[in-house]
Protein backbone atom coordinates (compact mmCIF):
# COMPACT_ATOMS: atom_id res chain seq x y z
CA UNK A 1 0.00 0.00 0.00
CA UNK A 2 1.35 3.45 -0.97
CA UNK A 3 0.59 6.40 1.28
CA UNK A 4 0.75 10.15 0.60
CA UNK A 5 1.31 12.24 3.74
CA UNK A 6 0.67 15.99 3.44
CA UNK A 7 1.70 18.18 6.39
CA UNK A 8 4.88 16.90 8.02
CA UNK A 9 5.02 19.27 11.01
CA UNK A 10 5.20 18.55 14.75
CA UNK A 11 2.49 15.89 14.57
CA UNK A 12 2.55 14.78 10.92
CA UNK A 13 6.32 14.29 10.79
CA UNK A 14 6.22 11.92 13.74
CA UNK A 15 3.14 10.08 12.45
CA UNK A 16 4.69 9.59 8.99
CA UNK A 17 7.82 8.25 10.68
CA UNK A 18 5.75 5.48 12.30
CA UNK A 19 4.29 4.51 8.91
CA UNK A 20 7.83 4.26 7.53
CA UNK A 21 8.89 2.16 10.54
CA UNK A 22 5.99 -0.20 9.71
CA UNK A 23 7.59 -0.75 6.29
CA UNK A 24 5.08 1.26 4.24
CA UNK A 25 6.11 3.43 1.28
CA UNK A 26 5.26 7.05 2.10
CA UNK A 27 5.27 9.97 -0.38
CA UNK A 28 5.32 13.25 1.53
CA UNK A 29 4.86 16.96 0.97
CA UNK A 30 5.16 20.00 3.22
CA UNK A 31 5.63 23.70 2.52
CA UNK A 32 8.57 23.67 4.94
CA UNK A 33 11.95 22.56 3.61
CA UNK A 34 13.06 21.57 7.11
CA UNK A 35 10.03 19.29 7.56
CA UNK A 36 10.68 17.69 4.15
CA UNK A 37 14.32 17.13 5.03
CA UNK A 38 13.50 15.33 8.32
CA UNK A 39 11.00 13.18 6.43
CA UNK A 40 13.59 12.27 3.78
CA UNK A 41 16.12 11.37 6.50
CA UNK A 42 13.55 8.97 7.97
CA UNK A 43 13.20 7.21 4.60
CA UNK A 44 10.24 9.06 3.07
CA UNK A 45 9.98 10.12 -0.58
CA UNK A 46 9.67 13.92 -0.81
CA UNK A 47 7.37 15.21 -3.60
CA UNK A 48 7.03 18.75 -4.93
CA UNK A 49 3.25 19.17 -4.57
CA UNK A 50 0.28 17.49 -2.85
CA UNK A 51 -0.81 16.23 -6.27
CA UNK A 52 2.58 14.68 -7.01
CA UNK A 53 2.40 12.80 -3.69
CA UNK A 54 -1.22 11.74 -4.21
CA UNK A 55 -0.56 10.47 -7.75
CA UNK A 56 1.37 7.53 -6.29
CA UNK A 57 -1.08 6.81 -3.47
CA UNK A 58 -3.88 4.47 -2.45
CA UNK A 59 -4.28 6.43 0.80
CA UNK A 60 -3.80 10.17 1.46
CA UNK A 61 -3.32 11.43 5.03
CA UNK A 62 -3.41 15.16 5.82
CA UNK A 63 -2.18 16.75 9.08
CA UNK A 64 -2.47 20.51 8.54
CA UNK A 65 -2.88 23.54 10.83
CA UNK A 66 -6.43 24.70 10.02
CA UNK A 67 -9.45 24.46 7.68
CA UNK A 68 -8.08 26.83 5.01
CA UNK A 69 -5.01 24.62 4.54
CA UNK A 70 -7.14 21.48 4.36
CA UNK A 71 -9.40 23.08 1.71
CA UNK A 72 -6.37 24.17 -0.30
CA UNK A 73 -4.78 20.70 -0.25
CA UNK A 74 -7.97 18.82 -1.23
CA UNK A 75 -9.72 21.35 -3.48
CA UNK A 76 -7.10 23.97 -4.48
CA UNK A 77 -5.25 24.45 -7.74
CA UNK A 78 -2.97 21.46 -7.04
CA UNK A 79 -5.60 19.69 -4.94
CA UNK A 80 -5.41 15.95 -4.39
CA UNK A 81 -9.04 15.20 -5.31
CA UNK A 82 -8.20 16.09 -8.93
CA UNK A 83 -5.57 13.36 -9.06
CA UNK A 84 -6.76 10.44 -6.94
CA UNK A 85 -8.14 7.32 -8.56
CA UNK A 86 -11.66 6.11 -7.73
CA UNK A 87 -11.63 3.90 -4.64
CA UNK A 88 -8.73 5.77 -2.98
CA UNK A 89 -9.03 6.71 0.70
CA UNK A 90 -8.41 10.15 2.25
CA UNK A 91 -7.92 10.62 6.00
CA UNK A 92 -7.82 14.15 7.42
CA UNK A 93 -6.32 14.17 10.93
CA UNK A 94 -6.14 17.99 11.31
CA UNK A 95 -8.39 19.63 13.89
CA UNK A 96 -10.91 21.69 11.90
CA UNK A 97 -14.65 22.46 11.92
CA UNK A 98 -17.05 19.60 11.05
CA UNK A 99 -18.70 21.52 8.16
CA UNK A 100 -15.47 21.88 6.15
CA UNK A 101 -14.76 18.14 6.09
CA UNK A 102 -18.43 17.40 5.33
CA UNK A 103 -18.28 19.77 2.32
CA UNK A 104 -15.03 18.19 1.07
CA UNK A 105 -16.55 14.72 1.59
CA UNK A 106 -19.50 15.58 -0.65
CA UNK A 107 -17.12 16.38 -3.52
CA UNK A 108 -14.92 13.32 -2.79
CA UNK A 109 -17.95 10.99 -2.77
CA UNK A 110 -19.05 12.36 -6.18
CA UNK A 111 -15.66 11.08 -7.50
CA UNK A 112 -16.02 7.71 -5.72
CA UNK A 113 -13.24 8.62 -3.33
CA UNK A 114 -13.59 7.50 0.31
CA UNK A 115 -12.90 10.11 2.98
CA UNK A 116 -12.99 10.43 6.75
CA UNK A 117 -12.08 12.89 9.47
CA UNK A 118 -9.75 11.38 12.08
CA UNK A 119 -8.52 14.10 14.46
CA UNK A 120 -6.22 12.97 17.24
CA UNK A 121 -5.57 13.22 20.93
CA UNK A 122 -2.21 12.43 22.52
CA UNK A 123 0.01 15.31 21.40
CA UNK A 124 3.54 15.06 20.03
CA UNK A 125 4.46 12.45 22.67
CA UNK A 126 1.64 10.17 21.47
CA UNK A 127 2.51 10.90 17.83
CA UNK A 128 6.11 9.86 18.42
CA UNK A 129 5.24 6.75 20.45
CA UNK A 130 2.48 5.67 18.05
CA UNK A 131 -0.09 5.76 20.86
CA UNK A 132 -2.50 8.41 19.52
CA UNK A 133 -6.26 8.18 19.89
CA UNK A 134 -8.04 8.74 16.54
CA UNK A 135 -11.67 9.94 16.51
CA UNK A 136 -13.06 8.79 13.17
CA UNK A 137 -16.07 10.16 11.30
CA UNK A 138 -17.00 7.89 8.38
CA UNK A 139 -19.36 5.18 7.13
CA UNK A 140 -18.58 1.68 8.42
CA UNK A 141 -16.55 0.42 5.42
CA UNK A 142 -14.45 3.61 5.23
CA UNK A 143 -13.86 3.38 8.99
CA UNK A 144 -12.62 -0.22 8.64
CA UNK A 145 -10.27 0.76 5.80
CA UNK A 146 -8.94 3.77 7.76
CA UNK A 147 -8.50 1.70 10.93
CA UNK A 148 -6.02 -0.61 9.19
CA UNK A 149 -3.78 2.40 8.41
CA UNK A 150 -4.32 4.39 11.60
CA UNK A 151 -3.38 1.36 13.71
CA UNK A 152 0.27 2.00 12.72
CA UNK A 153 0.13 5.44 14.38
CA UNK A 154 -2.23 5.02 17.33
CA UNK A 155 -3.56 2.60 19.90
CA UNK A 156 -7.23 3.69 19.94
CA UNK A 157 -9.21 4.17 16.74
CA UNK A 158 -12.76 5.13 17.75
CA UNK A 159 -15.68 5.24 15.32
CA UNK A 160 -17.68 8.36 16.32
CA UNK A 161 -20.33 8.36 13.56
CA UNK A 162 -20.59 9.78 10.02
CA UNK A 163 -18.16 12.27 8.43
CA UNK A 164 -17.69 15.23 10.80
CA UNK A 165 -18.43 13.26 13.98
CA UNK A 166 -14.71 12.85 14.73
CA UNK A 167 -14.29 16.63 14.67
CA UNK A 168 -17.34 17.06 16.93
CA UNK A 169 -15.77 14.68 19.48
CA UNK A 170 -12.39 16.44 19.25
CA UNK A 171 -13.85 19.95 19.65
CA UNK A 172 -15.93 18.92 22.69
CA UNK A 173 -12.97 17.14 24.31
CA UNK A 174 -10.74 20.19 23.90
CA UNK A 175 -13.49 22.52 25.15
CA UNK A 176 -13.50 20.49 28.38
CA UNK A 177 -9.68 20.42 28.45
CA UNK A 178 -9.35 24.21 28.04
CA UNK A 179 -11.82 24.78 30.87
CA UNK A 180 -10.39 22.11 33.19
CA UNK A 181 -6.83 23.40 32.75
CA UNK A 182 -8.01 26.91 33.66
CA UNK A 183 -9.89 25.57 36.70
CA UNK A 184 -6.79 23.74 37.97
CA UNK A 185 -4.64 26.85 37.38
CA UNK A 186 -7.12 28.97 39.34
CA UNK A 187 -7.25 26.50 42.24
CA UNK A 188 -3.48 26.01 42.40
CA UNK A 189 -2.78 29.76 42.30
CA UNK A 190 -5.35 30.49 45.01
CA UNK A 191 -4.04 27.71 47.27
CA UNK A 192 -0.44 28.91 47.00
CA UNK A 193 -1.47 32.54 47.63
CA UNK A 194 -3.33 31.39 50.76
CA UNK A 195 -0.15 29.70 51.96
CA UNK A 196 -0.32 25.95 51.18
CA UNK A 197 2.66 24.14 49.61
CA UNK A 198 1.82 23.47 45.91
CA UNK A 199 2.94 19.80 46.16
CA UNK A 200 0.69 19.25 49.18
CA UNK A 201 -2.24 20.88 47.40
CA UNK A 202 -1.71 18.84 44.21
CA UNK A 203 -1.42 15.69 46.34
CA UNK A 204 -4.86 16.40 47.84
CA UNK A 205 -6.50 17.33 44.51
CA UNK A 206 -5.10 14.23 42.80
CA UNK A 207 -6.61 11.92 45.44
CA UNK A 208 -9.86 13.91 45.70
CA UNK A 209 -12.80 15.01 43.57
CA UNK A 210 -10.86 17.81 41.81
CA UNK A 211 -8.63 15.29 40.07
CA UNK A 212 -8.46 15.41 36.25
CA UNK A 213 -5.81 15.09 33.47
CA UNK A 214 -4.90 18.76 33.93
CA UNK A 215 -4.22 18.31 37.65
CA UNK A 216 -2.56 14.91 37.47
CA UNK A 217 -0.64 14.35 34.22
CA UNK A 218 -0.18 17.98 33.12
CA UNK A 219 -0.39 20.14 36.26
CA UNK A 220 0.21 23.83 35.36
CA UNK A 221 2.33 24.45 38.50
CA UNK A 222 6.03 23.64 37.81
CA UNK A 223 7.48 20.34 39.11
CA UNK A 224 4.20 18.77 40.20
CA UNK A 225 4.07 16.48 37.14
CA UNK A 226 7.74 16.04 36.17
CA UNK A 227 7.03 15.24 32.47
CA UNK A 228 4.60 18.13 32.04
CA UNK A 229 5.49 21.24 29.98
CA UNK A 230 5.16 23.32 33.19
CA UNK A 231 8.32 21.60 34.43
CA UNK A 232 10.32 22.67 31.34
CA UNK A 233 9.33 26.31 30.96
CA UNK A 234 6.04 25.49 29.16
CA UNK A 235 7.98 24.48 26.02
CA UNK A 236 7.22 21.61 23.58
CA UNK A 237 3.63 21.03 24.51
CA UNK A 238 0.22 21.86 23.07
CA UNK A 239 0.60 25.49 22.00
CA UNK A 240 -1.74 28.11 23.49
CA UNK A 241 -2.56 29.28 19.94
CA UNK A 242 -3.76 25.78 19.02
CA UNK A 243 -5.96 25.64 22.15
CA UNK A 244 -7.30 29.08 21.19
CA UNK A 245 -8.07 27.76 17.69
CA UNK A 246 -9.93 24.74 19.12
CA UNK A 247 -11.97 26.90 21.53
CA UNK A 248 -12.83 29.15 18.58
CA UNK A 249 -14.10 26.06 16.72
CA UNK A 250 -16.26 25.12 19.75
CA UNK A 251 -17.68 28.64 20.10
CA UNK A 252 -18.40 28.81 16.35
CA UNK A 253 -20.06 25.37 16.29
CA UNK A 254 -22.12 26.25 19.37
CA UNK A 255 -23.26 29.47 17.68
CA UNK A 256 -24.42 27.51 14.62
CA UNK A 257 -26.79 25.39 16.76
CA UNK A 258 -27.57 28.18 19.27
CA UNK A 259 -26.14 26.18 22.19
CA UNK A 260 -24.71 28.20 25.10
CA UNK A 261 -21.12 27.37 26.11
CA UNK A 262 -20.63 29.88 28.88
CA UNK A 263 -17.33 28.71 30.34
CA UNK A 264 -15.92 27.99 26.89
CA UNK A 265 -16.46 31.60 25.81
CA UNK A 266 -14.83 32.86 29.00
CA UNK A 267 -11.67 30.73 28.78
CA UNK A 268 -11.40 31.53 25.06
CA UNK A 269 -10.87 35.15 26.11
CA UNK A 270 -8.19 34.15 28.65
CA UNK A 271 -6.24 32.19 26.01
CA UNK A 272 -6.73 35.09 23.59
CA UNK A 273 -5.09 37.39 26.13
CA UNK A 274 -2.18 34.94 26.54
CA UNK A 275 -1.60 35.04 22.77
CA UNK A 276 -1.86 38.85 22.67
CA UNK A 277 0.90 39.04 25.29
CA UNK A 278 3.30 37.08 23.07
CA UNK A 279 2.81 33.63 24.66
CA UNK A 280 1.02 31.94 21.75
CA UNK A 281 3.78 29.31 21.36
CA UNK A 282 3.87 28.29 25.06
CA UNK A 283 2.02 25.21 26.29
CA UNK A 284 -1.59 26.04 27.15
CA UNK A 285 -0.97 25.17 30.83
CA UNK A 286 0.91 28.50 30.96
CA UNK A 287 -2.62 29.93 31.44
CA UNK A 288 -1.62 29.85 35.14
CA UNK A 289 0.32 33.08 34.47
CA UNK A 290 -3.04 34.85 34.24
CA UNK A 291 -3.28 34.22 38.01
CA UNK A 292 0.28 35.05 39.07
CA UNK A 293 2.13 38.34 39.59
CA UNK A 294 4.10 39.62 36.55
CA UNK A 295 7.52 38.46 37.79
CA UNK A 296 6.43 34.80 38.37
P1 LIG B 1 2.47 22.20 12.68
O1 LIG B 1 2.27 23.64 12.38
O2 LIG B 1 3.68 21.75 13.41
O3 LIG B 1 2.43 21.35 11.30
C1 LIG B 1 1.59 21.65 10.22
C2 LIG B 1 2.43 21.51 8.94
O4 LIG B 1 1.57 21.73 7.81
C3 LIG B 1 3.56 22.54 8.85
O5 LIG B 1 4.80 21.86 8.70
C4 LIG B 1 3.20 23.36 7.60
O6 LIG B 1 4.34 23.76 6.85
C5 LIG B 1 2.36 22.37 6.82
N1 LIG B 1 1.48 22.99 5.84
C6 LIG B 1 0.68 24.08 5.96
N2 LIG B 1 0.00 24.30 4.81
C7 LIG B 1 0.40 23.34 3.95
C8 LIG B 1 0.09 23.04 2.60
N3 LIG B 1 -0.78 23.78 1.90
N4 LIG B 1 0.68 21.98 2.02
C9 LIG B 1 1.56 21.22 2.73
N5 LIG B 1 1.92 21.46 4.00
C10 LIG B 1 1.34 22.51 4.60
O7 LIG B 1 1.13 21.73 13.43
P2 LIG B 1 0.92 20.39 14.30
O8 LIG B 1 1.25 20.66 15.71
O9 LIG B 1 1.56 19.26 13.57
O10 LIG B 1 -0.67 20.27 14.22
C11 LIG B 1 -1.34 19.81 13.06
C12 LIG B 1 -2.80 19.63 13.38
O11 LIG B 1 -2.94 18.70 14.46
C13 LIG B 1 -3.50 20.93 13.84
O12 LIG B 1 -4.78 20.97 13.27
C14 LIG B 1 -3.55 20.79 15.36
O13 LIG B 1 -4.64 21.50 15.92
C15 LIG B 1 -3.72 19.28 15.51
N6 LIG B 1 -3.23 18.74 16.80
C16 LIG B 1 -2.01 19.13 17.30
C17 LIG B 1 -1.57 18.60 18.51
C18 LIG B 1 -0.23 19.00 19.10
O14 LIG B 1 0.05 18.64 20.26
N7 LIG B 1 0.63 19.71 18.36
C19 LIG B 1 -2.36 17.68 19.20
C20 LIG B 1 -3.58 17.28 18.65
C21 LIG B 1 -4.00 17.82 17.44
TrEMBL record:
Record's keyword annotation contains Secreted: no
Enzyme Commission no: 1.1.1.31
MF terms in GO: 3-hydroxyisobutyrate dehydrogenase activity; NAD binding; NADP binding
Stretches assigned to the 3-hydroxyisobutyrate dehydrogenase-like NAD-binding domain: 164-289
InterPro entries named among the record's database cross-references: 3-OH-isobutyrate_DH-rel_CS (IPR002204), 6-PGluconate_DH-like_C_sf (IPR008927), 6PGD_dom2 (IPR013328), 6PGDH_NADP-bd (IPR006115), HIBADH (IPR011548), HIBADH-like_NADP-bd (IPR029154), HIBADH-related (IPR015815), NAD(P)-bd_dom_sf (IPR036291)
Record flagged with keyword Chloroplast: no
Keywords from the named record: Branched-chain amino acid catabolism, NAD, Oxidoreductase
Catalytic residues of the enzyme: 170
NCBIfam families: HIBADH (TIGR01692)
Entry protein name: 3-hydroxyisobutyrate dehydrogenase
Amino acid sequence: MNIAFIGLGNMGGRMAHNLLKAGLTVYGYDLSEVANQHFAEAGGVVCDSPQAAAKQADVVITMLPAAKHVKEVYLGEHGVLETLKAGALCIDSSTIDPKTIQDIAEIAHSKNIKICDAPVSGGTIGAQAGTLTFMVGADESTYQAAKAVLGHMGKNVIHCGDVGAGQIAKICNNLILGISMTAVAEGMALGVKLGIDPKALAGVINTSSGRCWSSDVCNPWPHISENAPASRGYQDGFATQLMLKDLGLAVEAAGQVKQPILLGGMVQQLYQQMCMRGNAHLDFSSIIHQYLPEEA
